[in-house]
Each structure stands twice: as C-alpha cells, then as structure tokens.
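Reviewers of the previous submission asked for a worked example of the structure-prediction workflow described in the proposal, so we include one complete record here. The input consisted solely of the amino acid sequence. No template or homolog information was supplied to the procedure at any stage.
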Amino acid sequence: MKKNPVIEVNQVCKSFKAVQAVKGVDFKIFKGQSVALLGPNGAGKTTLMEMIEGIQKPDQGDILIMGKKWKGNERQLHRIIGLCLQETHFIDRLTVFETLKLFASFYELDRQRADEIISIISLEEKAGSYVVNLSGGQRQRLALGIALLNNPKILLLDEPTTGLDPNARREIWSILKQLKEHSHTSLVLTTHYMEEAEQLCERIIIIDKGRILKQGTLEELLEKDNGDKVIEFVLDKTNNQQVPAHTDLNFQIQWDAARDNGVIALSRMERQLPEFLDFLNQNDLRLSHMECRRKTLNDLFTSMTGRHLHE
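From that input alone, the workflow returned the following structure tokens.
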C-alpha cells in the first residue's frame, strides 16, 4: 500500500525583488519521519519553511499539507501543526505555567496539558517563575513546549538552537529525541549545525542558494564509493608551501588557502594514502600535521560548493 506524504513540496520557487530565494525545490515527507533542511545562512531554508508554515506563498509550485493546500484549509491545518521559531517573544510578567495555560486555552485544552508540557520540557522548578527571568535555553524549551501543546502531527522547527550554548542545545535535542521515541509526529528541522541534523533526523536535505544539492539518509549522503574516510592535513609553513593546482592523483585534494590546510576523501586507504605521501615527497612538501577521520556532512558540502556550512 502506497503511503501518502504528510508534506509535499512540488517545484516551489520564491523571489524577493531581484533575489531568488528558492529555486524549483521538490521533496516529500512521510508520517513519523524526521527531516533536516541543512545549509548555511542564506541558503533559503527559512523562506522554504515559511512557505510550508503558510506564512509565505510560493511564486510558483505547490505545497500540500496532508494533501491540502493552505488556502481555504487554514483553520484545520493550524490545529495539526506545531511551530517553534529561532526566537519567540513572550509576555515577560507571566509565569511559565501561566504562559502555557494561555496558549493551551487557544486549543481549548485544560491546565492538565500545561502541567504535562512542563514535565516534558523539564521546567518544573521554573513553573512559577516569570518568563523574563528565564535563561535563553529555558525560554527556547518553553517555546518548544508551546509547539507541542496540541500534540501536533507535524512539528516545524526553524533554527531552534541557534545562539544557545552547547548544554542548552543538548537539552533541546533530548526533548526532541524523547518525542521521536514516543510519538508518530513528523518533524522538519532547519539548521546549519551538521551535528544537529545527524543527531535528530534520519533524512537530510542539503540546500544551498535556493536549490537542493543532495538528499537522503546520512549513510546515503556519505556513501562509500565517494570515500568514507578523510585525511585533513597542514603543510609546514617555513617555505610558504601550497599544493599544486593540478595533480596526476586519482583523488582530489581540496586546498583551502585561507585556512592553510587541505582535505582529501579516500575510498581505498591502504592504496591511496601511500600514493598521497609519495606525492608530497615528490613535490618537496612537508607535513606539520595530518589527521584521519570519518567523512562528515561538512566535507560533503565543501566538495559540492567549495565552501563550509558555517560560512
């Protein structure tokens, strides 16, 4: 039996004056899937998310939520979606509990649901505290709690941990992992954090300059025939050494002059590493540092664009 997607994006385009923010994007998300829209700042992720949320309208193409367009179905779709933005403004002189009770009333939910959410987001000790006195991480947990009040079938998270310290970020991750384990909610997350996409999502869509570069599971994106190991190296600076622009090697060296380092992806370590070391010797290049590690999404993005995810 063929599954119907909960979100379907078909050839969607969006421009703002002379800037084309989204350029013919296609993808589908199914029930229970967790999907990351991963890309650097300015990639078009937020614009795409706002069109999925119904805030923006596509210039071209269609977006279907549960098989329905936003126009004419706004009330129904709002009741099945939870939304958490990068930054949420609250009423400072309401407590955590009062804030949740207020938003619960919009869905005709009682105070019991507010109590449940306080437990889910681990803010029991702050239930009676004014929102103005919360830390950045606690405020974001409260925003996530509001998004979960209506037991959404679809949870949309737009850069939910940007600006948070590592501990606060991991607290958000923990809540979302628990949600994945105990519900069938479909999750869509925009992020420029590689580790966040890997931790929370089984499917990743890499976006840059308004286009999808590649999509799939982490294993599919980092497929072995493209090299599953990476050598990162730094050359001795005494002679201002750089890797030659053209080589006869059967693998590519990505040289970053600004960072003064190089990266190569190897599929056959036992054969290609000696070849690389011979190449250095033949060109009188000396290593000051070399590290072998697992290939990452940032390596993949760099190989496709020549830039890093955080640039």
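The chain has a mean pLDDT of 90. We consider this example representative of the routine output the project will generate in years two and three.
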